[in-house]
Amino acid sequence: MRQPLVVGNWKMHGSRDEAAKLVGGLIQKLGGCQAEIVLCPPFVFLADVADLLSKSSVGLGSQDVATQVQGAFTGEVAAEMVADIGCRYVIVGHSERRTLFGESDALVAEKVAATLRAGLVPIVCVGETAQQRDAGITEEVIAGQLNTVFERLGGADEFVQSRAVVAYEPVWAIGTGVTAEPQQVVQVHQFIRGLLGKLGAASRVLYGGSVKPENAAELFELEDVDGGLIGGASLDIDSFSAICAAAD
Ligand code: PGA
């Protein structure tokens, strides 16, 4: 059995005060939740949020990492550093990093390796743009993104055994209010399960892209969907806790 996982990606939002209020409210509401819950605040709030979460079962993740261990890399943060602060997860290859900051499949694969090197679990984001979907190359794009990671780690089996998580996030559904149709989600999740190979049943594959309290239950019930990566709705106590409850 795969334990459902719901990850809140705060992106570049909030202040120290707002982070504390959000975490405080969530801890109160998420008490009996059976799903695994992880919060991914901006780097500068990780230490605060780690403290606030220390007595709860809610986990912590970062939104990105550098590939290097340490050294003269101004502005970068190593996986070992976020592990030191209490993170268990790292979001890697989010579409905003790929499109706005030019991260290639090869760089994403290096970041996955860096995350594992630090003993953390990567949440590897994959997904097609609207143009790629229209051109009928969704599967080709996702296979390219994932296979580059598998090759870097030595194969799909190594990926599964590392307990890495995949998040399918159609780029056209992120932050747009447009959610993929259940049938589109099932199709891509099954395809990803196939890419994961003979051990693939052990991996968690999340859906992300405009998940809201209104559509979460329907999405999480779908075959091969093991929870969600939540952006906008993770900034609101009621919305995020409702989404977590839907994953139970
Ligand atoms: P969204 O973002 O829920 O706001 O669409 C999802 C994501 O970017 O991970």
Can you lay out the helices and strands and say which pair or pack?
Elements: E1 5-9, H1 16-29, E2 36-40, H2 46-53, E3 59-62, H3 79-85, E4 89-92, H4 95-100, H5 105-117, E5 121-126, H6 130-134, H7 138-153, H8 156-161, E6 165-168, H9 182-195, E7 205-208, H10 213-220, E8 227-230, H11 237-246
Helix pairs in contact: 1-2, 1-11, 5-7, 7-9, 10-11
Bound molecules: 2-phosphoglycolic acid.
Q: Mind explaining what this structure looks like?
A:
There is one protein chain. With 248 residues, this protein is an alpha/beta fold. The chain has a single domain, classed as Aldolase class I (TIM Barrel), CATH 3.20.20. It is 43% helix and 15% strand. It contains eleven helices and eight strands. It has helices at residues 16-29, 46-53, 79-85, 95-100, 105-117, 130-134, 138-153, 156-161, 182-195, 213-220, 237-246, and strands at 5-9, 36-40, 59-62, 89-92, 121-126, 165-168, 205-208, 227-230. Helix 9 links the parallel strand 6 and strand 7. Helix 1 packs parallel to helix 2, helix 1 packs parallel to helix 11 (237-246) and helix 5 (105-117) crosses helix 7 (138-153). It is globular and about 45 Å long. It binds 2-phosphoglycolic acid (PGA). Residues 9, 169, 174-175, 208-211, 229-233 line the site of 2-phosphoglycolic acid.
